Amino acid sequence: MHRPLTVRFWGVRGTFPTPGSTTLRYGGNTACVSVHLGSDITLVMDAGTGIRNLGKTLAATPSEIYVVVTHNHWDHIQGFPAFQPLYQRRRVHCLLPTLGETITRALIEQMDGTRFPVEFDTLLSDRQVIFDDPRPVLTAIGLHTDLIPLNHPGGGFGYRVCNEGRTIVYLTDNELVPPADALVTPFEAYLEFCRGADVLIHDAQYLPPDMPAKHGWGHSVLYQALQLAVAADVKHLVLFHHDPDRSDDELDAIQTEARSWLRQQGSSIRCTAAFEGLTLHL
Ligand SMILES: [Zn+2]
Ligand SMILES: [Zn+2]
Questions:
Q1: Distance 202 CA to ligand 2 centre (A)
Q2: How many domains are contained in the chain?
Q3: Which residues line ion ligand 2, judged by CB < 5 Å?
């Protein structure tokens, strides 16, 4: 019997938190996605403001917690100081990829006593911090993980996580077709990385009218994410990292447009615009 594998979305917004009456349904918290393997292992991907509510839920469970980040940008770390398990007598693993020239340390460096009053070194929890390659640690707990460099200012990593034939790809803050001088990873390499995934979570922050003004900002246009999903033959595409200026009604329209584009291609891929509380059982 497989242990249940569950993906849950706690923050789906890019760039800045967006509370307010026009973002109630999709939510205004910044990036945070959890992957639960049974009830004993939780992988937290990114620590935007969404991690605060995840932390409240985890505080009441004995789950072993592994936090990874894609990169240092604020919207991926800013909720971490409010992550309740840090203040509990329990173990919290922080796996901060440091590979080549890309270093992710901001998650814990922000808790230095000046930017946040509580210093990371004084927390009650038993914090296991690794500045290295997170793959061996995650693979050892049954989450076979691969990384791919992002096309994003400052760099970063996407994650492919597999357990017993079930695969989740988390690729946010990624410009699939960047300007030539910003190209780190070509489209074909992402295609191989995503191939056959059960769930592909991909940045779809922009629409065609956002271009060319935002070309090179490190985010993808909706249709690029759709083309990747079709080419890689994934089962379910989750549109992620919504623009902070996008209202609930606009996101509804984007989801409708994405689904009708997929139908026109003859594709049976499921497509969902991510919202807080979205839960996928694999
Ligand atoms: Zn971001
Ligand atoms: Zn970013």
A1: 13
A2: 1
A3: 73, 173
